[in-house]
Specification:
alpha+beta; two-stranded antiparallel ribbon; 4 helices; elongated
Length: about 80
């Protein structure tokens, strides 16, 4: 039967979670999952002011944005590997 869904795409991830819980315990799996989700969640942009200029950088880019002069950041739109708007 073409196009029929068997649910096998769900079985493997569920089985993997069950094995992880059995090996490491529920608390460890939940804590690790939360850490991973926190690390991939984008942070709010930060406004950096310097020499009368305001630079908007992504989340944790404030320290990197302060490494460049506003002129360099504004002309290249990059500073320390961080995009600048």
């Amino acid at each position: 039967m073409a196009g029929a869904k068997t649910g096998s795409g769900v079985v493997l991830p569920v089985a993997a979670v069950i094995v992880l819980i059995a090996v490491f315990g529920l608390d460890e799996v939940v804590d690790t999952t939360q850490d991973v989700l926190d690390s991939v969640t984008t942070q709010d942009p930060t406004l950096v002011e310097d020499e009368g200029y305001q630079l908007l950088v992504g989340g944790d880019g404030e320290a990197k944005a302060k490494q460049c002069t506003p002129q360099v950041a504004l002309t290249t739109r990059l500073c320390g590997g961080v995009k600048v708007v």
